[in-house]
Amino acid sequence: MKNLSIESIGQIAVNVKDVPRAVAFYRDVIGLPLLFETNGLAFFQCGETRLLLSLPEKKEFDHPSSVFYFKVKDLNSTVATMKEAGAEFIDEPHMVGKMGDVEIWMAFFKDGEGNTHAVMSEV
Fold this sequence. Notes:
The protein is of the alpha+beta class. The protein has one domain: 2,3-Dihydroxybiphenyl 1,2-Dioxygenase, domain 1. The protein is about 15% helix and about 40% strand. It has 2 helices and 9 strands; from the N terminus they run E-H-E-E-E-E-H-E-E-E-E. The protein has helices spanning about 20-30, 75-85; strands at about 10-15, 35-40, 40-45, 50-55, 70, 90, 95-100, 100-110, 115-120. The strands form 2 sheets. Strands 5, 6, 7, 8 and 9 form a 5-stranded mixed beta sheet that branches. The longest helix is centred in the first third of the chain and has 11 residues, at about 20-30. This is VOC family protein.
């Protein structure tokens, strides 16, 4: 198979049912910088990747989103801050595996739209 030289993910779209509610969650609870909103679309920056929140354009696109794993430096502090801001966690920070001497820790939460995502840390 030919190498297409894909370097990174430029943008990820997440289906939402209520754009203002989703914007409030991703901006105020997760703390992502809101770039701009236009015509029912909201764009955030997450490192080098843009996150697009929008209503599904067609019925075939109306389904839950993929799981996002937001990488953070201090998992416990991030979870505490997000909980204070209203995030609903479905578990507590826990180790999910090891890569050599690096431990991978995660905690899963629901966004305001019912999608499951995680914050993760490599220790």
